[in-house]
Amino acid sequence: xxxxxxxxxxxxxxxxxxxxxxxxxxxxxxxxxxxxxxxxxxxxxxxxxxxxxxxxxxxxxxxxxxxxxxxxxxxxxxxxxxxxxxxxxxxxxxxxxxxxxxxxxxxxxxxxxxxxxxxxxxxxxxxxxxxxxxxxxxxxxxxxxxxxxxxxxxxxxxxxxxxxxxxxxxxxxxxxxxxxxxxxxxxxxxxxxxxxxxxxxxxxxxxxxxxxxxxxxxxxxxxxxxxxxxxxxxxxxxxxxxxxxxxxxxxxxxxxxxxxxxxxxxxxxxxxxxxxxxxxxxxxxxxxxxxxxxx
Length: 295
Ligand code: UTP
Known about the structure:
Elements: E1 7-12, E2 32-33, E3 36-37, H1 38-48, E4 53-58, H2 62-68, H3 73-82, H4 85-95, E5 99-104, H5 111-116, H6 119-122, E6 127-130, E7 134-136, H7 143-153, E8 156-162, E9 172-178, E10 184-192, E11 203-211, H8 214-219, H9 232-241, E12 248-252, E13 257-259, H10 263-275, H11 281-293
Helix pairs in contact: 3-4
The structure holds uridine 5'-triphosphate.
Uridine 5'-triphosphate binds at residues 11-19, 57, 105, 108-111, 113-114, 131-133, 261.
């Protein structure tokens, strides 16, 4: 399927409790990473992969997200009057990126529930689920490979990353079988946030999924799991372990990824991305070195 026909679903209705109090009135996906909200990077990633249609599943505090991707006539007028084309470009860029649709989740009953809400919007085609607090560096594209595997295998595809075994209990974890491609594995089973001793591997699920509509038939009856939330991992586990359903494959991501939903990783993401930037890096890098020397 051509990427332009694939829709992206971005669930942004979580409560963001790990990042309180910043996320009390602001969705965590709107926290700035250098000078753009995290969610804008994710929309740009979808657009770079050829996707033009984005559905955001929104919760409380939705206005900030809707406004960010909408036109701002007053601000644009002022910048036009001032002749500040650079800033005007920045303001207009986010509202012209893609067709952005918004749908309310209702209650935050979990990621699986948020994805289920996208059913009528995505229809009968494969679609991407992209988490707004999980940033994939634009220099290490992941989605095109996932789209390719979905087409080849006619299967659902999840993104995996090798993590330190000590950290696997923070993620969904996959039990896998190798394929001819060292970056692609067949998923045999999945377990949400296992204790280190019970984890079948150190392959963690990260926030990119290429799903087929069969997922909705499963999510319809998926019961609340870990954290009393309807877990997407539980639904995918059912798909992977049910012989009658489509297969699930994993693409192992070996590039740069930033988890902006976690305070420490968020700080690291800003430093890494800013130090690589032409406008900020030359001043920031020596400062980081000097600062590190004082520690
Ligand atoms: P997380 O578990 O990372 O998000 O959900 P959270 O619940 O907001 O975060 P913490 O743990 O309390 O800090 C993964 C993704 O699913 C979305 C979140 O916005 C995030 O992008 N989500 C989660 C929903 O859209 N709805 C939900 O009910 C739960």
